[in-house]
Amino acid sequence: MKQFLGADFLLQTETAKQLFHDYAKEMPIIDYHNHLPPDEIAANRQFENLTAMWLKGDHYKWRAMRANGVAEEDITGNTDDYTKFIRWAETVPYTMRNPLYHWTHMELLNPFGVKQLLDKDSAERVYEHCNEQLSKWTTQALLQHFKVDTLCTTDDPCDSLEHHKEISRSSFKVRVLPTFRPDRAIGVEDVAAFNAYADKLGAAAGVNTDTYSQFIDALRSRHDYFHANGGRLSDHGISTFYAGNFTQEGLAASYAKLRKGQPLTPEEADAFKAGTLHIICEWNHERGWVQQFHVGAIRNNNSRLVSRVGADAGVDSIGDWQVAQAMSAFLDRLDKKDKLAKTVVYNLNPAYNEVFATMVGNFQDGTVPGKMQFGSGWWFLDQKDGMEKQMNTLSNMGLLSRFVGMLTDSRSFLSYSRHEYFRRILCNLIGNDVENGELPADIKWLGKMVQDISYNNARSYFGF
Q1: pLDDT tens digits, residue range 66-119?
Q2: Which of 18, 132, 162, 406 has the most CB atoms around its CB within 10 Å?
Q3: CA distances to 93, 127, 312 from 68, in Å
Q4: CB–CB of 182/236 below 8 Å?
Q5: Residue 277: CA atoms inside 13 Å, Cβ hemisphere, count?
Q6: In the chain, what percentage of residues exceed pLDDT 70?
Q7: Which helix (H) or strand (E) holds 197?
Q8: Which residues, other chains included, contact 76 with Cβ-Cβ below 8 Å and sequence gap of 6+?
């Protein structure tokens, strides 16, 4: 019987152990997509307690606690932090076979050195032990501890990027770069919210946004601003790809309709999203950026909890929109103008893994190794089964060797254990193939392969 969370956790063969311990384990991290708050990095925040560091904002844990019958007041309400931690500790034993069970104990082991299992009996000891260490585990100390080379936060075009500027002026060695996330610029379903955003965008850019051309000028100004401040990626959270036929006249007319407070028809909305995203993607190509598309989430399903907690309440799930035809049309529209930037697409519905993997292969053009990336298992799929399925699909349909690897997609500074989790799973997949005789025991080449996927490919691909 193997020890839970021992040195060879998730590593089933001798080859897997060698690949992980000798090649993958010590590689630095490029975390090219996360939701870490740059103000907390700039301030080198010291957390007041483990709950503040670990539970606040973590909707994965919130979902598990709700499923375990914990009252919302003890999850996101006004209950004191210690009680919230106790409620989480009581929930942890019930998360067995959920990835949270692995992540929880990995995050307690590294960096806090906690080896005992978390439950209601150990909760007080664990809480006190970790709290005693919080003075040394500031945000910057954690990033350095986990060997983070570069991280990219997720930022609205209206953001001042003041904290990124502060970090870049400091002596902190980790690169903290912004990512351009203009989702609200195509959020036309809520007309009032869209108009408020258009006004905010104009104020940030210092221009009027009365017309569509002015709106686009404002977006372009902010795109330029992000580039000047180190931004090299855009990110787009979309339900599916948009491929409606659009003209400049039609986009201008739809924008004028929105500014009058009038809703768009479904056809007008699809064309507006397709056209506006197309323009942004052309800028990405022009600037040499990488663009990311997170596809397939159906968000804010529980209106009662959203009204109480707000967005990111933990009530999102996998959607089931048809994607192939629109994805093909959207990418082809850019490619035939030779304006398709390096692109990473993340799939949330595992039923579409092969669709995504084969679609990106259609638009590889030989200019950059792995120009089109089938991204790592995302959100509900960034767990052992989801990661294995994503990598197996990529292996079957493309080149796993050119994969840019893992990202945290997290709001927690303790989530860097997910990179270790990913690397163990990667090494185990390859190690099993070797010992089954399905791959040669060329450890030198395979070691290079896992190092490339862990770090080197991302370093070359993103070119920070």
Answers
A1: 999 999 999 999 999 999 999 999 999 999 999 999 999 999 999 999 999 999
A2: 406
A3: 10, 21, 19
A4: yes
A5: 32
A6: 100
A7: helix 191-205
A8: 62, 308, 309, 313
The position carrying tokens 């993958």 is 24
- Residue bearing tokens 């955003």: 197
- pLDDT value at 311 more than 90: no
* Contact present, 157 and 229 (Cβ < 8 Å): no
CA dist., res. 113 & res. 412, Å (int): 18
Residue environment code for 106-117, b if the CB has 16+ CB neighbours within 10 A, otherwise e: bbbebbbebeeb
CA–CA separation, 331 and 326 (whole Å) = 9
DSSP at 406: -
Give dist(CA 343, CA 423) in Å, integer.
23
Separation CA 285–CA 140 (nearest Å): 33
And the tokens for 130?
């970790």
Rama region for 312: left / alpha / beta (φ>0; ψ in -120 to 50; rest): left
Q: Count of residues for the chain? A: 464
Query: Nearest 5°: phi and psi at 150?
Result: -145, 140
Query: Which token pair is 4?
Result: 């839970």
Digit-coded pLDDT (tens) for 399-455: 999 999 999 999 999 999 999 999 999 999 999 999 999 999 999 999 999 999 999
- Those residues whose C-beta lies under 8 Å from the C-beta of residue 399, and which sit 6 or more positions away, are 370
Strand partners, 237: 294
At 291 the three-state DSSP class reads strand
Which of 391, 416, 388 has its CA nearest to residue 402? 391
- Neighbouring residues of 209: CB distance < 8 A, sequence distance ≥ 6: 198, 199, 201, 202, 215, 218
Strands (DSSP E) contained in 331-464 are 342-347, 372-374
